[in-house]
UniProtKB/TrEMBL annotation, chains A, B, C:
The chain crosses the membrane at residues 6-24, 31-53, 65-83, 90-108, 114-137, 149-167, 173-192. The keyword Transferase does not apply. It comes from Nonlabens xylanidelens. It is a multi-pass membrane protein. It comes from the Bacteria. Pfam families: Gly_transporter (PF03458). This is Putative membrane protein YeiH.
């Protein structure tokens, strides 16, 4: 298991727990919980693989992914009393998930010989699409459109990745720094309620 | 035409009629009816082919599928007075559709050399995704999230398929038994209002 | 740059502006505007490439597309005061976009050796899917389901394409005539409020 596989594995755990928590909070039945956990953990990677043209889709030959997701659902269920403040826990696991998946997407884009700008788009898709599907399925406004810094965190992490790569740092450090940047950007933006600057003048917003 | 092609063909008919009935009940225009029938009949197979990496997508080289869907729309339109109780008829054709498509998905997963558990997921996707798209497009809550046994019926049918396969029964019998299991499970669950057991304690549900 | 690439390029501009205008009208933040412009311009082509099995997806090796979309967003932003009647401008750019993309889809379907009927479906998907995604993301009813002539315009344009092809006219003329047919059909249908004939008797509609 190389470093990128470990990051991918941790991302699966973070997103499967995030999906299961979201499904629990909506009181879905056992089967619905597994579907939501699976879609959250595998959705972004599936779209990435389809777009890059990776065959087979990563989860189709990877039974460990399936078992990991099932285990995460069971563990989340058992400890749901301890995870009492579901919203905060869900938020944290989601932030960790997008950090790890951004790096996996960047790495796979580079391996496919794509332009850095396209790699950053692929990183964003890998990180954000599973959460978007999760929110659509449980009937919440997709997190990406809730007007706070989410995909932007992935883009900033992607830029850090390519800047550090120029300095010929070891891969493990580049990966880690990039993922930590995404997670910190996301967490700090929510904690300090930082928003992107509005491109509209005050008049335009009032007139709306 | 081999046995699996016949099952696929019957599935197309069942889903095209189910899609056309749903579109009629919403008073869509002629073009909208054809789109909904097409998406219902071809949606699940399209996602399956994209995920497995089958090229070309099944309906792109198969004019019979297109003509069959158009014929189903016309026939459904002519007999819509006889199909008076639209909801019940729609429900029945949808149940037949998921039974037949589950088997087609299982078979194609096996042919691609996938693990039985992945084959069952592929069977579910083939069976359920067209109906989910149909419901999203006509603005109904997707049938798969209406908290009754739907995808679960496909999973049970998939398990029956792999159990019977172990006994070296002829393929035709395994196919038929598996499809019938899905259809019966779905119909009986709705008729007798059987639901999946809730994983939550009474307190948790009340507190919601 | 051949004729079809020029048409594709003009289509990207039309749809990127249409997406940016729609995002401005919803007061999205800068990042949201770029996402919507990108999805509107690249969504239909992405689904087309996935279905036909074209690898890599067109925008993944085409940095010009990315830069064009970014430039369109900036230009649209600067001239948004001049584009005061956003709804009408948006409608016009959307109509131009579906005309141009229909032809691109038809051409790529033919190049893949597909049946004319399938080519017309591919043309429709290329033209309509980006706008559908745009409308879903900004939370409008998808334009294709608003009960007026939209995808129908693409189908009529596709039929004109294959009829003119039979007369061995030069490709540029066939392309142009087909795109103009789509745009005119769409614009005239909206201006004169032309709808598809209803397949239902008056009684059925009243009883609804």
């Amino acid at each position: 298991m190389n470093f990128i596989e470990i990051i991918d594995f941790l991302g699966i755990i973070a997103f499967a727990i995030s999906g299961a928590l979201a499904a629990f909070s909506k009181k879905l039945d056992p089967f619905g919980i597994v579907i939501i956990a699976f879609v959250t953990a595998a959705g972004g990677g599936t779209l990435r693989d389809v777009l890059i043209g990776v065959q087979p889709i990563s989860w189709m030959r990877n039974m460990n992914l399936i078992y990991t997701i099932l285990a995460c659902v069971v563990i989340t269920f058992i400890f749901r009393a301890q995870l009492a403040k579901l919203r905060k826990t869900l938020f944290l696991f989601d932030a960790i998930g997008i950090g790890l998946y951004t790096v996996v997407g960047l790495e796979m884009g580079l391996a496919a010989g794509l332009h850095p700008l396209i790699c950053i788009i692929i990183g964003c898709i890998t990180a954000c699409f599973g959460g978007v599907l999760r929110d659509i399925l449980i009937n919440e406004i997709p997190v990406i459109f809730r007007k706070n810094i989410y995909a932007t965190a992935c883009i900033i992490g992607g830029m850090v990745y390519f800047i550090l790569l120029k300095f010929n740092l070891p891969n493990n450090i580049v990966f880690t720094a990039s993922a930590v940047t995404v997670i910190l950007t996301r967490v700090l933006a929510v904690v300090f309620k930082i928003k992107l600057p509005s491109p509209y003048s005050k008049n335009e917003i009032i007139n709306k």
